[in-house]
Each structure stands twice: as structure tokens, then as C-alpha cells.
Amino acid sequence: MSINLNPQLTTEYESLFGSCLINPVKQNEAVKIKNKIVANKPVYELVENATRVPWFVVAVIHSLEGGLNFKTHLHNGDPLSAKTVHVPKNRPPGKAPFTWQESAIDALTFDGLSGVQNWPLPVILFKLEGFNGFGYRIKHPEVLTPYLWSFTNHYQKGKFTQDGKFDPKAVSKQCGAAAILQVMVADGDIII
User: Fold this and answer.
1) For residue 109, is it within any domain?
2) Is 79 left (phi over 0), alpha (psi -120 to 50) or beta?
3) DSSP states along 66-120
4) Does residue 192 form part of some domain?
5) Is residue 2 situated within a structural domain?
6) Whether pLDDT at 1 is above 90
7) 12 CB burial (10 A radius; 0-12, 13-18, 19+)
């Protein structure tokens, strides 16, 4: 099933982000993540310069895929000491070990993000959701993807605990992309 960013989905993303509130219990954690991201903005900007993917989008993916660890692949958090072993497997091309920057550029190019010309809010959220996969939207539409909405009023529970395995009672412990972006907007670090 192919998912496209159509007018209905555009409106959904705009409405959800506009009504998104960070769970007060998780606010400090979201702010700590945002502060680490902003402290490393020059590193993310190097990848932005090579791919045209906004630095903060790169950073949010880095938070979700690698816990902001610069020793892991942006693709999926596998160690840079070897090619990726999780989906996508066997990335990037070339011989290990890899630098974080070269791996990040490969991840964004491989996933088609480097070809995006404009980055308004619906495109940002669509591309972030797509980077993780549309499994929630396709197989469990009753759950808004925690990749975007964890730590917010739009997510309570339900999680893929591994590729293809969904647990309706599991709760994501990661700060979702929308929560990070909300803090960045509120603190004036970005304008979307």
C-alpha cells in the first residue's frame, strides 16, 4: 500500500501538530533532548549542507534512531563500526568503519529525503513518519505513530516492539518527533 501526502493527510498533520501538547511529566525530558540537539547544531548543519534536509529534521531522526549517539548509523542506530544489520540492511556502501556524517548522508539519500525541495510542516511530519515506516497507519490506524506523537496528548499506548510485531499494551519510552519539534518551536530554535 502506497501512502502519499494528499490534502487530507496534510490537514491531519497540521491539525494534530496544532493541537499537540507535551505530557507535563515528559516536558523536562523533551527539553533535555532539544538542548542536546541544539548543542550539536553545527554537526547537523554539515549534513543539511550535503543533503538539503533541514538540520533539525536530521537531528530528530538522530534522536529517534540513535539516541543522539554519534557512534551509530542514522539509518537505524546500528554501530558505525560495521554496515547496518537491521532494516535497512547492509548500508552504507563502502567499507567500515564509517563516519557519522557519511552514514547520515547515505541514510537520508537512501530514504529519498535528500530529494525534497520544500519542507513545510506536513512534509516534515510525513517524511519523518515515512522514515520509520507507515506500519501504524496501515496496520494499526487506531494508534497514531509514537515515532511522531509519543510524549504528547496524541499517543497513549500501542507499539511495534520489533519489525512486524505489534503490542497494543506497549508504551513507547522515546520522545516523539512532534514533541521535540514543539519544544524547538516554543524555544525559538526553529520556525516551521
Assistant:
1) yes
2) beta
3) HTT-TTB-TTTS-BTTS---SSSPS-SSS-SS--HHHHHHHHHHHTTGGG-----
4) no
5) no
6) no
7) middle
User: Is the pLDDT reported for residue 163 higher than 90?
Assistant: no
**Which is nearest to 110 in space by CA: 158, 76, 157?**
76
Q: If you search the block for the grid coordinates 497513549, which residue do you land on?
A: 156
Are 7 and 157 in contact, with CB atoms under 8 Å apart?
no
Nearest residue to 61 via CA among 2, 150, 128:
128
> What are the pLDDT digits (tens) for 81-93?
999 999 999 999 9
Note the pTM of the prediction, 2 decimals: 0.96
Whether the per-residue pLDDT at 136 is higher than 80: the answer is yes
Total number of domains in the chain: 1
Look at the alpha carbons of 167, 173, 174, 178 in this order and tell me if their dihedral is positive or negative.
Answer: positive
The pLDDT, as a whole number, for residue 125 is 98
Work out the average pLDDT over 186-191: 96
| 90 located within any domain | yes
* Percent of all residues in the chain with a pLDDT value above 90, rounded to a whole number: 96
Q: Domain range spanning residue 12?
A: 7-186
CA distance 139 to 192: 30
Segment holding 172, helix H or strand E: none
Set of cell numbers at residue 72: 551509530
